[in-house]
Amino acid sequence: MGYDDCLNKKLIKFFLSLFFLFLLTIPVSQSAQAGTFCFCHNLDDNDMGNDICTAANAFDELKGTNHFQHYLCYLCNEVCPGDHPDCGLCEGYDDPMCSVADLRGKCSGCGNNLFEPELGEQCEDGNNTNGDGCDEDCQLECESDAECNDGNPCTDDVCSQETFKCTNEPNENACSDGDMCTGGDTCSEGECLGTPIDGDEDGTPDCEDLCPKDPNKTEPGVCGCGVADTDADGDGTPDCNDNCVDDPNKTEPGVCGCGVADTDADGDGTPDCNDNCPDNPDKVEPGICGCAIADQDSDGDGIVDCIDECPEDPNKIELGSCGCGVPDTDTDGDGIADCNERPRCTNLHDLLRHGMSR
What we know:
Blueprint: H1 3-25, H2 30-33, H3 45-48, H4 51-63, H5 69-79, H6 100-107, E1 155-159, E2 166-170, E3 182-188, E4 191-196, H7 348-357
Antiparallel strand pairs: 1-2, 3-4
């Protein structure tokens, strides 16, 4: 290397040092403090209006290297989020080859407080948090109300054209909760609520009530809707089917009626209630002889045996003078029945027989 070359290099370093000192005296503009440093961002027309950016850009185009790396790194760190993993990598870095391009790469990306449309950013809010209008990928969270639709009919979905943030405010619109058991469905606090339809007000919705007009029943039961399944006599047969509702022993009146058993003690086929001889299977009425004695007329004379002294003599009902089987005939009309009157003696033989018999 010749003397002239060394001298030229020293002069260049001297002037660069002066230029660097000049840059340090230039105050950081409000726009730079707001995160628009050209050193960490691709230059555009606005950046070119900044004296620092213009000088640095001119130098960068001239040499392609950054001899003011400490100042540039300071600017970069001011732009990067505090927890950005690449912040501070250039600080204290003595290599004169820390270029503007290097610094751009270290601080580029969503959340660095630099709006970089060339990287596909639609917004930049200095963080990677969703729900603030600019999402974690630096995309607008919404541009139209349709993008804010949360699928809930009970919220009004609106995209703010100022913050590009979705709001889903509860409304009080009519809605359908999809439940056939409810009616008058209305939105309340972001939820669709219906009122159970209960026509008989028994606490069971009509859709589950098999007796929707009977407040005392939810199922027909034995007697059907509108009729209670009451069993007053506790015989197991509801009153609606019991024709003797107060008689636990009968469900039908039968022959004897409710309250009286259709018992047939003597088994003659006539219930005791109609049998005046309930213990005699041969009689249902006492008759002439009473329940225990048959009204039999053995001799057929029309007088039952129980009062016929001659039950086997059809010609007599009393013993008379002659007894049963012998008529009380009085042939000679003398008032003495023939059976008790001596016969006349008509011959010696009869006389001797009668006389001897005396």
